[in-house]
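Section 4.2 – Deliverable D4.2 (structural model, holo form)

The reporting period included a commitment to supply a predicted holo structure for the target in complex with zinc ion. Inputs used:
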Amino acid sequence: MGSLRGALAASGIVKQEVVDELDEKDREEREKEFKKKVESMTSTGRFQSRKPNISRGPSSESPKKDRRADPEWQKRKEELKKRSEPFDLLWRGERSRKFMIHVLRTFLPPPIVKFVGDWSDKEFKSKNCCICKNESISLEDAIKASGEVAKAMVEAFPKMLDDPKYKMPDVMEGKKLAVQAPDSNAVFCAPCYREFIRWALFKSGVDNSLARVVSSVRKKYQKSKDNAG
Ligand SMILES: [Zn+2]
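Output (structure tokens):
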């Protein structure tokens, strides 16, 4: 759909059967490639604990007060504060804290988090990111999508996870790839998931009750890993 091949077939330049066959082959290839990439990203540590970025920059050499006077550092601090805001707000509310504890327990252990793909289309239609409320796209959708979208997504993944300012390409039509965990109905779009991990790791250094939750998740995860092998 919307591909060059499709246009060629529609205009009669190439036979539809040929296009179908090529599309099918491509789809299978893309599916394999895509799954491989996604699996390598989820299993090799792209979603493993990421150290909070705030500690980077002039640290050990320069004393703290110098840093505070540095406008660049101030700017960065403000930016990080803004990025943490949605999570801080949820953490502050009594009811929303319960939700946050739920997602910390279900989404923090990295290996169980998968890109959304197991739900049926119907189930998935109602799934918006639990933080930004944006519409998400499932892995299956991405695989089924036209070559252009699939290519853009594969290229966008690492950037989306690494660079907070990265804007998804327009072919995604505002949808973002989402992650899910087995014991939760919530989904996170990839950028919010990245922020969530950053927030949890950073904030647990300054918030005791969050630190307790994070450490209990870690212990449980470690135990299940030990039991597994
Ligand atoms: Zn989101």
